[in-house]
Amino acid sequence: MSKKRSGGGLSPTQQAAKFLGVSVLAGAVMAGIALPAAGALGLAAKGSVESFDELPTNLKTPPLSQRTTILDSEGGTIATVYSRDRTVVDVKNISPYMQKAIVAIEDSRFYQHGAVDLKGVLRALNKNAQSGGVAQGASTLTQQLVKNVAVEEAGDDPTKVAQATQQTLGRKIRELKYAIQLEEELGKKKILENYLNITFFGQQAYGVEAASQRYFSRHAKDLSLAQSALLAGIVQSPSRYDPVNDEAEATKRRNTVLQRMAEVGDVSQAEADKAKEQPLGLKVSKPKNGCITAVKGAGFFCDYVREVFLTDPVFGKSKEARAKVWNQGGLTIRTTMDPQAQNSVQNSIKDHVYQDDQVATAATIVQPGTGKILAMGQSRPYGINTKKNETTLDLSVDQDMGGGAGYQPGSTFKPIVAAAAIEGGTPATKIYSSPYKMDYPSPVQLCDSKVWNEKGVSLTNENESEVGPYDMKTATAKSVNTYYVQLISDIGVCPVTEMAAKMGVERADGGKLQQRPSIALGTQEVSPLTMANAYATFAARGMYCTPVAIESITQRAGEKSKSLQVPKSTCSRAMSENTADTINTLLKGVVEDGTGSEAGLGPSRDSAGKTGTTDERYAAWFVGYTPNMAGAVWVGDPAHKRKMQNITIGGVGYGKVFGGKVPGPIWRDMMTGALEGKDAPQFNTVYIPDMPKKEDPGKGKGNDDGDNGDNRGNDNGGNDNGGGGNGGDGNTTFPTPTFSIPENFIQGQSNGNGNGGGRG
After folding, report:
1. Measured between alpha carbons, how far is 51 from 434 in angstroms, rounded to an integer?
2. For the chain, what is the mean pLDDT?
3. DSSP 8-state symbol, 633
4. Alpha-carbon torsion, ordered 385, 386, 388, 389, to 10 deg
5. By the 8 A CB rule, do 331 and 561 touch?
6. d(CA 305, CA 299)
7. Residue (of 599, 577, 750, 567) closest to 670 by Cα position
8. pTM for this structure?
9. Other CB atoms within 10 A of residue 132 CB
10. How many CB atoms lie within 10 A of CB 735?
11. Hey, how many other C-beta atoms are within 10 angstroms of the C-beta on 443?
12. What is the pLDDT of residues 353-406, one digit of tens each?
């Protein structure tokens, strides 16, 4: 049996039946306007009642789209993003003035009628007939709510929005049926609450709370009479009555609302007149939406979080499903970003590389053993003004996550070769002849029983003084190219690419690492995040963990909240603890007495790392770590056009840029700040005997910082324009030998082909 509304006369169902009986004579009185003949609208008047009865009664109300807040690991706000700026509030948190104002101007008989106002329809018909046009509408607040629900469901699809708002008799009949349902199920107060939360108020503000914040920088519960009247007046035409762009028109409309409130008895005439005299009193808060609003230079990290959400199946089976959840919003996303680390990254970048420099830098910090991304920053800020060197390209990540095609890592790839060799049984005391210049040895074993066999492709070390023999410890500290080419020629390429895969190293463009010996010198383009996370494997004693940026997500739907499942880091053993400890021992030597000495963190904190500089100096790197943080710093031209020779970076002139010079100090400063106040655990190291003492051919002849590298590689043999290793500072001496030199220890001098080269 139909319910009867208090003060409403007939029940909604009874009113609808009576209304439909009248409407068939009018053609489209449900809209309160004169429309063309019903037949032209696709719904004959004769069949209106039958069609009405056949319509479904269950209105699917979508959760209202709201703003999403992205937080750092400590709960501080990074950015607010939204498809529609809306904050849903309970009716008790909406000013009584606002509730009365919207009813007075939009549907003054709201509390007296049911789903449709028959008197209003007849009044509108009479008014429109007199004017010969559409002078007045008659949709109730409930009907308007139904239409807004349809628009909300349509989202940003223009076709669906047009269908939801088209002026047809069929739509109006469906609108009425759903309005009857809402009146029966919700009641007046809840309908009013929903209406005020869904309605568009202009200036990108959806719902009364967002509108109150936008125009007056206050909560909806605190709106005054005059402020409420202004907002209520905007609803009819948000563009026409926009107080920001047309104060005079908005004032007239506000005063019309105030007068209507006096006429229906919501306020006295004196109160209305007093409010009319008040200025608009706008205190506009500009829309703040998107990652461009991120604090602490975290716009790119914010973008990365969005990309994770839109690409990870945990948030939906399809791209469309994930986008729908993201656009719906109402999410509170707590991320892994550590505010201390993020601040330190940005401060270090600003100190060393300027926004308007010819080259850029990108830096990333991750947590070993968890995969958590702690910080991500770059010298070119988030934005679209290219004249100010702004960009939306995230220089720290892979192409499919909003980054570019990556950069050759140069000699920072050499520790991966060393790890593959040691894991396969090669001792860290292995000695090679390591001449200044040589051809790639060939043939070299690849995967799947394939062989690389190119002849006549040569490479050199950075300095002519770098002439072996060298062992792995010295060759790593000095970043000797010919040592590592001989090493990979011995063990084969396949163990190296397999080790790289276990450490999460893949090309930034999504392609597979190519099978060629020049990979030893860093010729395959990768991203800073990839390298930071790979080195975290060494810090975690051989455990690789996939990178993660999201800790938790809470989704608000109406008055309820629920937790969403988030991607978890997957950890697996990439190498034995002994192999990792051996690499840690080797790379400690790089920062203590090698090419990365300017990146060292001092005697009170263990650190390790590797420099890298590519051929022609298009890129320079430092990738390093402590037991509790790993970070990568890249410096170069994202367009791969500006060589870093005779260049000024951060106000300092450089004849040649080395990995130990610019990236190294950036890494040192960012890690120092990120680790301040944190524990200082030590590495588990292993004893690696020194090579028998001999005259150091590089004494006094090295580069300024010992950085080295020149990779020359191509597809046929490694000539890839890759990056390379580096040379020592020429001041290293060897301690008393602890073992004898075996006969015929010089190895790997076979004529080779295949090119590539890395500099430290």
Report:
1. 88
2. 83
3. E
4. 130
5. no
6. 10
7. 599
8. 0.78
9. 8
10. 10
11. 16
12. 999 999 999 999 999 999 999 999 999 999 888 888 899 999 999 999 999 999
